[in-house]
Amino acid sequence: MTRLVLVLGDQLSPGLSALKKADKDSDTVVMAEVREEATYVKHHPKKIALIFAAMRKFAAELEDDGWTVLYSRLDDPDNAGSIVGELLRRAEETGAKGVICTEPGEWRLISKLTHAPIKTHILQDDRFICSHAEFEDWAEGRKALRMEYFYREMRRKTGLLMEGDDPAGGQWNFDHDNRKPAPGDIDPKGPLTFEPDNITGDVLALVEAEFGDHFGTLRPFTFATTRAQALQALDHFIEHSLPTFGDYQDAMIEDQPFMFHAILSFYMNCGLLGPVEVCEAAERAYNDDHAPINAVEGFIRQIIGWREYMRGIYFLEGDEYAARNGLEQTRDLPQMYWGGETRMACMSAAVEATRDHAYAHHIQRLMVTGNFALIAGINPQQVSEWYLEVYADAYEWVEAPNVVGMSQFADGGVIASKPYVSSGAYINRMSNYCKGCDYSVTKKTGEGACPFNTLYWHFLITHRARFSNNARMGNMYRTWDRMDEERRETVLADAEKVLARLDAGEVV
Ligand code: FAD
Ligand code: DLZ
Ligand code: SF4
Question: Which pLDDT tens digit goes with each residue over 452-497?
């Protein structure tokens, strides 16, 4: 009796647990482009195009490999419009009585499959280094779940950058060598780009016709859409950008949306690349003296540390995690996040990159758009939905802990030990945005003062009861307390003016 083997749009890996479990001779693979997945949030058109094009090509590869594949295109007249709907339709067509699938990366879809009126066997997703059980064991009994200690476990488990029991280079973490401001004259290569072939061309026309109202620019579309191309993109990164990845990891330069970042999260998160093979490629570059330890260690930490840790937290904390609003922030997300006018050069650059590339690099996400949303008191669920929509690497397992946890401090401090907030000084130190901004970063109050400068203090004072006992924040409050009374009143009044403008939908 045939079983259906569901392969989702972010499960495009030949070694997927559902495929390993299935029988090529008797089971039928089901893949479906469905409106529900494309619109449960209005994903960026480039993200939908990446997933549909990569799905079509992966389905063809499976067929070449001898699998029977039932593939539904979005515009098939019989398409039921949802994953469960498609499974039921295919079950009726084939007489299949059961489904096997690899665990989806969102509680939403896990719940739909668990409650589907067809027997569904959900297997672990072993494309990750750390299983749910291992993460639970690691978390058990710990007061604080800090990434650094988890990361060391993952180094030991994978053997990456290990010399016996010791870390390569004598240290676990080389961050003190990283995070330099970038000189203005750098010339990063950026990601490898690919001309759309006929299959991608068809998908682009479909996405344009069906999802033209979603935020974001579809063309030019130059993403990799096969594993072979994604491997080329990996080689390109290792060759050209990895050596300087660490140095300028937190730097931001106008008109350089990619800096020395990998631009590989798109491919890892939809399954075209595996995390270990990506890290092994970086490790080889270190062993071959092509890239220094600070770059390679920093890069590997992002993947076997942060990426695995975020997934661990998402599944450990449960299905209500993404709905947390620990600081009770309620303001609506301003129009500037959707490309509405803003006088802030840093926000404008981050949103423009997001619109054009379905990408912004980490420090733009954390210290520009995330920082602004937090200090402006924006509702974390609105912020989270924005991130889930606009980035081509966004799936809730990785997006929610990054946004609700790390960036918006809305999870009650599970991930971050203090909120990632800053005044304009940080952005000025790490970027060249302020030079071309309408606002003055050195002005703390009055007309033309950088909004980050006033909102920063407003946020800290609004949440003083929550943070004043936090040892890592004592300096901030001491600085505030040393300011004279009149100045403090002006700062808060000016912040209120900025917030009033946001509430009135006026340009900030
Ligand atoms: P690089 O900077 O070159 O890093 C290499 C790899 O490390 C990435 O490809 C990614 O797989 C991994 N990585 C680095 N930091 C993180 C992190 N904090 N969490 C998980 N993986 C990490 N990443 C996503 O994959 N999806 C998201 O939806 C997402 N949302 C984010 C939202 C906010 C507010 C913040 C602050 C970060 C978010 N990140 C997210 C993490 C990070 O910004 C992206 O992984 C990174 O920008 C992807 O670009 P890159 O491949 O060029 O990464
Ligand atoms: C993100 C996405 C989109 C846009 N479309 C589809 C789709 O049509 N079919 C599909 O199988 N998967 C799609 N995905 C990925 C799913 O949303 C993803 O599997 C879940 O969010 C769980 O991570
Ligand atoms: Fe951003 Fe303020 Fe600098 Fe303008 S002055 S770019 S708003 S940090």
Answer: 999 999 999 999 999 999 999 999 999 999 999 999 999 999 999 9
Residue list, ligand 2 pocket, CB within 6 Å: 8-10, 32-34, 37-38, 43, 48, 51, 83, 104-106, 109, 395
Distance CA 376, CA 329 (A): 9
Q: Which CATH class is domain 335-503?
A: mainly alpha
Please state the domain extents for the chain. Answer: 4-123, 132-190+241-316, 335-503
Q: Is the pLDDT of residue 184 over 80?
A: no
pTM for this predicted structure: 0.98
Atom of ligand 3 nearest to the CA of 452: 2
Q: What are phi and psi of 151, to 5 degrees?
A: -60, -40
| Index of the ligand 1 atom closest to the CA of residue 406 | 36
Strand order in the sheet with 28-32: 68-72, 28-32, 4-6, 98-102, 119-123
SS3 labels along 251-273: CECCCCCCCCCCCCHHHHHHCCC
Token look-up 């690691």 returns: 138
Q: Which amino acid is at 184?
A: G
- Regarding beta strands 166-167 and 162-163, do their DSSP bridges make them parallel or antiparallel, or are they unpaired? antiparallel
What fold is seen in the domain 132-190+241-316? 1.25.40
CATH fold group of domain 4-123: Rossmann fold (3.40.50)
The label of the residue with tokens 């799936």 reads 395
pLDDT above 70 coverage of the chain, percent: 100
397 Cα nearest atom in ligand 2: 23
Residue nearest atom 17 in ligand 2 by C-alpha distance? 37
